[in-house]
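Hi everyone,

Forwarding the result from last night's run.
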Amino acid sequence: MMIKTASLTDTILAVVQNKGTEKPFSGEYNDFEEVGTYLCRQCGLALFRSSAKFHSGCGWPSFDEEVLNHVKREPDADGRRVEILCARCNAHLGHVFSGEGFTSRDLRHCVNSLSLDFVADLSVNDTEEAIFAAGCFWGVEYYFKQLSGVLKTEVGYCGGHTAHPDYHAVCQGDTGHYEAIRVLYDPQKINYEQLSKYFFEIHDPTQTNGQGPDLGQQYLSVIFYYDEQQKQTAIKLIEILTKKNYSIATKLLPVSPFWRAEEYHQDYYEKTGKQPYCHHYEKKFMDE
């Protein structure tokens, strides 16, 4: 089981760990109609399918059915409601209500958007996550979105020392953040080592002052590891590349809060129809 608490922002932690509630009608998934699966934001377990989602008008995402055995119920501390939590990691999701007559199942799982991730896949049951930095996140995302087994990408800022950074502050070099990407993937289709190999092959991990023409600390090469297994995988791959005479500059850092970048930066090349200017694919691993 992957626990992603270290990468969650204070806003998300206030809900999933401290049992807070986001403001009604403010959540990303309240008015959201795409087909796929809603995951636990803290551990990546599949919780709800889009086919179970309906509009209740309450201001939070509503579902009338959960993925079997993936959501558990407990009496709420208020003594009146029934709390729902991720059955695996105990992340707070929201509350469940019955007898309201919204659907034939007569159940309403009222869920905070901040407790959820969404992937456009109807069959996935579990996911894992990797966070990388490899220069301008536009190009990094462009390549990772092409990789089979990747379910979702999100660009943002990681590794810094200030909360709620924005693009301008990061570019000024005042926050210590790197331009990074969060990659959700299906471990039944691709593993962390394969993802990490691809990471090394879509950028120049030997460059010490940025990536391509983009210079600055925010463009450096970094692998943010969630656990010792991810760290050891990265060390192994760096050793392989070093034996191939690559002078690897990639840093290995423990995961820290990942701050989602402004909407303008998400899926940038898909929106603009342009091509990456400082990333290209170069095969570096053979049968290792």
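The mean pLDDT is 96.

Cheers,
N.
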